[in-house]
Design goal:
The protein is α/β, with parallel strands linked by helices. It has 2 domains: about 130 residues, Aspartate Aminotransferase, domain 1; about 240 residues, Aspartate Aminotransferase, domain 2, CATH 3.40.640.10. The protein is about 40% helix and about 15% strand. A 7-stranded mixed sheet has the order 2-8-7-6-5-3-4, with helices on both faces. A 3-stranded antiparallel sheet has the order 9-10-12. Strand 3, helix 4 and strand 4 form a beta-alpha-beta unit. The two termini are about 25 Å apart.
Length: about 375
């Protein structure tokens, strides 16, 4: 099997898995309990929190553990909306957002909030002039994904943060799920930021919401003690410790990982350019881990099934929104519905080998010839 769907899920790093098992065996106590086992568990989760904070260059008090990025996005967006509802009900987001962001906003729209989509440019980045036009005194939130999961577009997060300084009641939420482990991430100028371990070789079931100090979010989950007042429930110590190690490795090993992946991406682009009916949808400025393409007049779902039969795993749209509809992200960039229906994604890893790229191109050639006759 050739696995090229790393943006949907990454395999767990062996050292990260070992850390999880070690902590799970050695820390059986509840971190909220006032005895020796509880004290040991609390010490372990506190150390993990400090490690995560160092990796992200934030304060430990700004870390909130969640079950993953979907919960973190829901928590941040809905809580900010409730917090600022007396100042306004206007929210801005992009057409490239994950379904946990767009779904949260749909729920808020049904409660009377006004939602606007900001235009994106041909390269997929936010049209900053249009964003400035959309901002109003009653705008309370701008939500932007740092890296789009389908195209790999890198958004100008720092420029947006700078623009929003002039809006005292407008918060800035960044979904960094696809950014962590792909490029350096900064929390500067951001109010809330989400991430999840399973996108950077950690375990499923653990994520983080980074919350600016002084921002008093309203909890989604109430009742019971925890590591924070913002999310009740017994903390999973082993998961927190495993995330801390996965993040530490993602940050420290980033340059070497990216160098390898960039070479693989360049090889794919060169090889795919030989096929006249192939259209590369990811801009040249996209992260090298993600390459989105379309084969003219062949639905993405059809090409994916053919590749799957050849032992190659790729994806059509985000794994959380594979519903048979055209890719919203690709349509937003190309303005071509048929192209969006034909799109699919290759996502690469530092674990991807040159031989796997060779084998993929052979499988692609067979599928292309069979489906474009």
């Amino acid at each position: 099997m050739i696995y090229l769907d790393y943006s949907a899920n990454t395999p767990v790093d062996e050292a990260v898995l070992q850390r999880f098992c070690e902590v799970e065996r050695n820390c059986p106590g509840n971190a909220n309990s006032r005895h020796a086992a509880g004290t040991a568990a609390k010490a372990a989760i506190d150390a993990a929190t400090q490690s995560i904070a160092r990796s992200l260059n934030v304060q430990p008090a700004e870390i909130i553990y969640t079950s993953g990025a979907s919960e973190a996005n829901n928590f941040a967006i809905k809580s900010i909306a409730r917090l600022e509802r007396h100042h306004g009900r206007h929210i801005i987001f992009t057409p490239l957002e994950h379904s946990s962001v767009s779904g949260s906003l749909t729920a808020l729209q049904e409660q009377g909030y006004e939602i606007d989509l900001v235009d994106i440019r041909q390269d997929g980045t936010v049209d900053l002039a249009h964003l400035k036009e959309l901002l109003r005194p009653d705008t309370i939130l701008v939500a932007v994904t740092a890296v789009d999961s389908e195209l790999g577009v890198v958004q100008p997060v720092a420029e947006i943060a700078e623009m929003l300084k002039a809006c005292p009641h407008c918060h800035f939420h960044v979904d960094a799920t696809q950014a962590v482990g792909k490029l350096p991430v900064s929390f500067a100028g951001i109010d809330t930021m989400s991430l999840t371990a399973h996108k950077f070789y950690g375990l499923n079931g653990i994520g983080v919401l980074v919350k600016r100090r002084g921002l008093a979010l309203e909890p989604l989950i109430h009742g019971g003690e925890s590591t924070t007042i913002y999310r009740s429930g017994t903390p999973t110590v082993a998961l927190a410790c495993s995330l801390a190690l996965a993040l530490e490795k993602a940050v420290s090993e980033l340059p070497a990982r990216v160098e390898h992946i960039r070479a693989l991406n360049a090889r794919l682009r060169t090889g795919l350019a030989q096929y006249p009916k192939v259209r590369i949808n990811s801009p040249d400025t996209a992260v090298p881990q993600i390459l989105n393409l379309s084969v003219q007049n062949v639905k993405g779902t059809v090409f994916q099934r053919e590749l799957d039969a050849q032992g190659v795993c790729v994806s059509v749209k985000s794994a959380c929104s594979s519903d048979g509809l055209p890719s919203r992200a690709v349509f937003a960039v190309s303005h071509d519905r048929r192209n969006a229906l034909s799109s699919w994604r290759i996502s690469l890893s530092h674990l991807t080998t040159e031989q796997e790229i060779t084998d993929f191109m052979q499988a692609f050639d067979a599928c292309y010839n069979a489906l474009t006759q």
